[in-house]
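pasting for the record
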Amino acid sequence: MRAKHGGVGLGLDAGGTQTRWALADAAGRTLARGSVTGFSGQQALTAAGRRQLDAVFRDLREALVATHASSPLALCAGVSGYDRSAGDTMPRLLAAGLGLPPQAVQCFNDVELACRLEFATGTGGMVYAGTGSIAWAVDADGAAHHVGGRGGLIGDEGSGYWIAKRALAELWRREDDAPGSAVLSVLGAQVFAAVGGPQWDQTRRALAAKDRGELGQLALAVAHAAEAGDAFALSLLNQAGDELARLALLLIRRHGARRIALAGRVFDLHGAVLSRLAAALPAEASVFRSALDVAPAAARAAAASVRLPV
């Protein structure tokens, strides 16, 4: 029996706080879209995490049924924290959880997928800076390569979490040196308001209660302080731009990426981040802010991969 391409595809853009989904048909039309709870690749590695995934997939199935659109025949998913070197557990869980055959599931790290959707192979790379930071390029042979992305404990330089940690460390160092000085600074006023007050106990409780994504939101307070004239806040954002430029330069030098797409909310914080990054790159490099809507683009890719009998 011959086969033809076509069918409904499901695209997922899964992050720690939200999973965006979309359905598309073989003509490239978006049929439906929405969001459910976020998840990450790391959840596939523990029993507790897999139970959480079961709940997310149940909610997703219910959301898809509620759209009254045709059921998807294939899935293309980008999952934060997913690493194919850890095995095929996540793709298998996605297949089982959504009632799809394993061969109908394509699963990538979320930024890798965005890079593959943004560029033809071998033509560009993507630098992502949100709660964490990482950069990906796909070479002419279709192999993916990344730099950075080592996590908040030892890496993720230039990310929102990295900016927040450095701001808090600086403020409490100042407070040790000269009690009362930190809260009087523009940076201190902004950051302490965001954590609930100027006392150490309030910062300590915030560090204990908030996850990385919530703590990364403190980068907004740093940006506000920079806008208000705080010199350290501005220097911290300049340093973030330098660190993200390093990732872009590694993609250019190692993998020949001449077009660099930028994604993630850190690039929206303050103009200093982007201007420092752009200034550090060679003149022949082209840098642009990605406008890619990943979930519908992934759904179109999934739909194009479906093979129907004729």
